[in-house]
Amino acid sequence: MRTLTSLISHPKSAAGALNRLARPRARRCTLVALALLLAAFAGAELAWCPPLPGGTIVYDNTLTPEDSFLGATSPYGPTEFGDEIALAGTARIVTEFQFEYYADFTPTGRETARIRFYRNDGKTRLYRFLFPSTLLWDSGTFPIYTNYNSKTLIVPYVGVPSDFTWTVEFGGVSQDPGDQAGLLFYNPPTIGGLLNEGRFGSYDDYWKRVGIFWALFNFGGHPVANFGCRVTAIDERVDLTSSVDPATGLVQLTWSGEQPEAYLVQSSTDLQQWNTLGSARMQGSGPTVSFVDRTSATNGRTFYRVVRLATILDTPTVTSPPRPQDGALQVQWVGNPNALYSIQTAARLNVWTNYTVARADASGYFQAALPVGSQGTQFYRAVHVQGGTEQPALTATADPQTRAVHLKWQGTPGTRYPIEMSPDMATWTFLETVQADANGLVDYIDPTAAQSPRRFYRLVLP
């Protein structure tokens, strides 16, 4: 334990703080979720996906429970709290985070949790220890459930130092008895790194935000103040070479790759905050992989790193904050090079409608202009179309004056697609055959649509 007079030891604190679990431990279910990224204007969302395979467990404290849980409070109400942990090995690109919690409340649908990662680089003359300061990752809120739970979050390749602090913030609960949620205590860690004073994995204390400040607390060893969690990461080390095109000033990166692995390319100006530039795969027989930074001509000093991905990017990553422009929300993703994605929209996260389609370029980039109107909150997601063209996402718009219908979809370059129409989705009539252009885009206008009170369309796949 860190020895400092300002380290607060309290076997019991405010209501909803330390809770002993005397009843038998229920069988826990594992909940897997992808952290949502919601846009400030229209709720852009990442599609759901299964956990990423592979990776190395660099911290694990999920073996021995202490049958207690903590729901932290402060004079300002329920608050953010968590544990400083040290990682084993060299893998520092986090892909998966699992934590253990217990909850006891009458469900209202408003109960949530939120995970954050911090670098411990905060300093003050009144405090000897570096406290959580620089935010590394924020999961956003997600629902929680009663009883014992193990929650796994897919982390979008976030780089962390060898020791960092993770925190949770529970919402929708008062932390009074019968309306509370808290982290479960586990000890000792079985996988981890060394901290100061020779401590393995984690100190016997936890961080809690009190207003705008952070403070350390413990329980005098009963229980040991370590929370149950597991961190999975991949190793970022890929040897790069670079060259600059004298005509354009663009930087080209090259490295040795392996099939069928994909690679995420990131840049930084300070070696702390990393931005995703795109993804790349080995082309042909290889073994060289190359990537051109299209922003390098306008940047100053830039550092690069390449992350070996654990799986194909069926779930694309938003690479730039969604921003309003010309009455639309401009969103850019990075996914698989040359892959096809369906951009979908929903009002309540349960019924999704195809809005448009986009094909990623050779670097994996694709973007879309999403409408911002008066329809209330809208959510968006990009879904990888398996195989590229098996199920093209057809979009249709009507001219308000001529009532002509404009059909668009993304297919395979040069492929011919028969279009059929129906008044009732029971009887279908051939309309016309159209051919996709060199980029796979198919664009067709039906001038006869005004002849029918309603008309349905479908494509006949080759």
Protein model, in words:
About 0% of the residues lie in helices and about 50% in strands. The protein contains no helices and 35 strands. Residues about 5-15, about 20-55, about 310-315 and about 385-390 have low confidence and may be disordered. The termini are far apart.
The geometry reads as: globular
Low-confidence stretches: 3-16, 22-53, 310-314, 387-391
What structural category arises from helix and sheet content? mainly beta
Q: What is the count of helical runs?
A: 0
Nearest-integer average pLDDT: 75
Radius of gyration using CA atoms only: 26 Å
DSSP, total strands: 35
**Helix content range of the residues, please?**
under 10%
What is the CA-CA span between the terminal residues? 67 Å
Q: Main β-sheet: number of strands, strand sense, barrel status?
A: 8 strands, mixed
Question: What is the domain total for the residues?
Answer: 4
Percent range for β-strand residues: over 45%
Spell out the blueprint of helices and strands.
Elements (H helix, E strand, L loop, with lengths): L7 E2 L8 E3 L8 E6 L21 E5 L4 E6 L2 E2 L2 E2 L2 E6 L6 E12 L7 E13 L2 E17 L3 E13 L3 E6 L11 E7 L19 E5 L2 E6 L10 E6 L6 E4 L6 E6 L5 E7 L6 E7 L6 E6 L9 E6 L8 E9 L2 E7 L5 E7 L6 E7 L5 E7 L7 E6 L10 E4 L6 E6 L5 E7 L6 E7 L5 E6 L9 E4 L3
Parallel strand pairs: 1-16, 3-12
Antiparallel strand pairs: 2-5, 4-17, 5-14, 6-7, 8-13, 8-15, 9-12, 9-14, 9-17, 10-11, 10-13, 15-16, 18-19, 19-22, 20-21, 20-23, 24-25, 25-28, 26-27, 26-29, 30-31, 31-34, 32-33, 32-35
